[in-house]
Model the fold of this input.
Amino acid sequence: MEDVTLVELRSLLAEGGLALLDVRTPLEFEGVAGAHCDPRQGHIPGAVNVPLERILECSSADEVRAVVGLETGAEIVAYCHVGSRSGYAVQVLEGAGYHARNYVGSWHEWSREVAEV
Done:
């Protein structure tokens, strides 16, 4: 599995066209819930929330692609809180035919950044 760094993610977001998947719960994504160790709650601008649990409910690659809503081969960067859920999601996404990578710093790192993209 290939990881994405904060610097690389910022560059990809600035270029546009990146599929950024937040695999946390909807409450974490909305900023209503989250870890107390993070200075702020919410999500990375431009991210789409597809909880890991929803991905794991799928019984085939076709179902995963239907849930994600992107064509086979699309580049996806997934993140969660600390990179563990997103690491698992990346494996499933790769099995469904995506070029998926993990932003291992995830929300824990991003929430400490002052400047937004």
